[in-house]
Backbone:
């Protein structure tokens, strides 16, 4: 990986991003499917009473889901603004009691926490994609702080699925910045340089993420794309969303299709559920 982790850049980026992170998972049918799939794995693997470290929690989309499941949560984010928004959202939803503390911190350094301190770790969204070559260190930290047999749920940005989803824009970028710049991204997964447009990250292939996970003391118990069918046709998505029966069926189709070996790479994110050995 060529992406160099810049914690200060990332802090500034998400401080400025603000509440847009909250609305990201409700803006259209594609986003709602992604939320549904991430939520599904929380429902499957987080039990009432679990003490959970939520890394990169942002303004609290999944913090609220964890609270609804009866978890006790330590919220960690690199952005003080995202932490402020998270606390405000939990207060608005009368869920302050579910959060033990809000911690400004870095996924590559969880030294503030003891070994095996948590029953589960959740790291959804971008944290592992932003740390670049430090991803193995971040994973080591996550598995260090979770107890034996505890689940670690994570998602990363997907190279194949993102390329598939944004191909029209990628063609435009090739003309704007040159084909070599775009080709480098599609070969390496490293979104860097002018073509990144100030959003530097590493996009994973499932084989690459799986290889990193095999170097940790864990077993992989589930993997999924964050959406498959909904990346195709916004008009069809809108029709489905407006028909309750069809929408419910579409969610079940997505749940099945996204977990198939040929589809795991095909969403904008890859979800992985592991258990520490």
Residues:
């Amino acid at each position: 990986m060529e992406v160099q982790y810049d914690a200060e850049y990332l802090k500034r980026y998400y401080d400025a991003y603000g509440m847009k992170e909250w609305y990201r998972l409700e803006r259209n049918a594609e986003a709602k499917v992604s939320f549904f799939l991430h939520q599904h794995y929380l429902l499957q693997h987080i039990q009432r009473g679990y003490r959970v470290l939520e890394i990169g929690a942002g303004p609290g989309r999944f913090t609220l889901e964890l609270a609804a499941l009866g978890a006790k949560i330590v919220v960690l984010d690199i952005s003080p603004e995202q932490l402020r928004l998270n606390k405000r959202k939990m207060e608005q939803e009368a869920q302050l009691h579910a959060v033990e503390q809000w911690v400004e911190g870095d996924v590559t350094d969880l030294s503030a926490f003891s070994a095996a301190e948590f029953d589960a770790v959740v790291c959804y969204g971008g944290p592992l994609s932003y740390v670049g070559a430090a991803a193995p260190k971040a994973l080591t930290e996550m598995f260090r702080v979770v107890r034996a047999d505890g689940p670690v749920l994570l998602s990363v940005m997907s190279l194949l699925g993102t390329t598939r989803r944004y191909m029209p824009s990628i063609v435009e970028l090739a003309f704007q910045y040159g084909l070599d710049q775009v080709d480098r991204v599609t070969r390496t997964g490293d979104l860097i340089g002018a073509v990144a447009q100030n959003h530097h990250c590493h996009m994973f292939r499932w084989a690459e993420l799986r290889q990193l996970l095999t170097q940790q003391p864990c077993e992989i118990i589930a993997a999924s794309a964050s959406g498959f069918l909904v990346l195709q046709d916004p008009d069809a998505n809108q029709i489905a969303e407006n028909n309750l029966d069809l929408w419910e069926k579409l969610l079940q189709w997505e749940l099945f299709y996204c977990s198939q070996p040929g589809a795991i790479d095909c969403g904008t994110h890859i979800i992985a559920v592991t258990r520490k050995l």
